[in-house]
Fold:
Amino acid sequence: MTPTLKELKGSEYRTVDFYLSKSCNKSCHYCTAWTLQMRNLNVDMDLVRTILKGLAPYKTRICLLGGEPGLTKNLDEVIAEIKKYENLIPQVLSNSLVRKFYPHILEDRDIIYIEHLVLDFYQDKIEKLGNYPFLPKNDLNNYNLIIETPGYFKYRDNFDLTEIDHENTEFKEYNSRSPDFFTDHELVQAPELERRVCAKFPQVPVFDFEIRKIRHCSRKAINGSREFDITVENITKMMNYELFDFEKYCTTCMDIIPKRPKMRRDEITALISKEVNLLDLMDA
Ligand code: SF4
Structure:
């Protein structure tokens, strides 16, 4: 049975993103990869099969997004293909359009469905991306994703939001991807060791179906992440920490580097120690 999000946290599963199409029906001001043009809405299944062949030996959560995945014409086909592999878990991240075009996804416990329904909170209102209520507590692996922006806290001060206080809501710290984060937060760069660990296997490498490449770092989706051809050989290298390196943009990266599960961090640190003197990095 597909694990819950709680069970996946800290587990051996790694996550990769599929940018199926950059098309979206919304234009969120903080989004890094979207266009209102409707394009590439038929996902190339040959490319999907190549990627899945490469990922198949490794426990991997595949996050289907875009743009808005609910716009793609053959989302069901992509999910059915992923489900053929024991090690692979499909996850869909939608602004709620999936509820309209693919409602059965929410009924299927083996697909993790995460809904990013809120554009932003304000002192007196919530601006939503779809005309739906928040998801209730459920055992179908459906989750609300709530970004704790400054507006979220202001709204909570004035209104009752207990309807989202349950295990099917993921609260995400307001972070450096948010538009005005840097006006409110002091910039502190993560230690070089953490950035080097991240660079070997970033939180989310991206399979970009528009340019048909693997992008090293999703944080650099627009501004120049290194790219690699999508081949089984490259995917195998990626999953064994042999494809990605500490890039120039990692030296200046100011992103918050999420904590890795200990086993993964130890594996990567052991590899890095062959490239650089770890004691130097720890002293830095
Ligand atoms: S740029 Fe930052 S987030 Fe991206 S791989 Fe490098 S260290 Fe990680």
About this structure: Residues 195, 198-199, 202, 217, 219-220, 249-250, 253, 255 surround iron/sulfur cluster (CB under 6 Å).
